Amino acid sequence: MLQKTQQDNVQQQLFVNGKLEAVYGRGTDPDNQTKPGDNGKAASPNYITLSNFDPAYRPVTNNYPSAGVGQYAVQAGDTLQGIAQNAYGDSGLWYLIAQANGLASDAELRVAVGERMNKLLDYAPK
Description:
Blueprint: E1 2-6, E2 9-16, E3 19-28, E4 34-35, E5 44-45, E6 47-52, E7 69-73, H1 80-88, H2 94-100, E8 116-120
Antiparallel strand pairs: 1-2, 2-3, 3-6, 4-5, 7-8
Helix pairs in contact: 1-2
């Protein structure tokens, strides 16, 4: 465990096997480290209470993760319904994959085994 004290503010960092696992206590705001000084004084640290027990966590927002198109290697015997079940958890959404790939039905799914087929992954049920 590492401990840093600044102006009576104590911030602790917990490491396990060399990996940062938690930051807690009182330390400088990682997003806004300083606040402007008053009456011409220099800026001073912006202290906040920290309690981050999963530093690798990044919350889902409108910008993260970014929507994108994935790819799927078609296997012998695949159906659009089966691919949709794996991709979206709902076989009834097969038409999204068909539309993304210019297909009308499973009959048009015939491609050489191992050939890559675009699969729309940015679908989000409302």
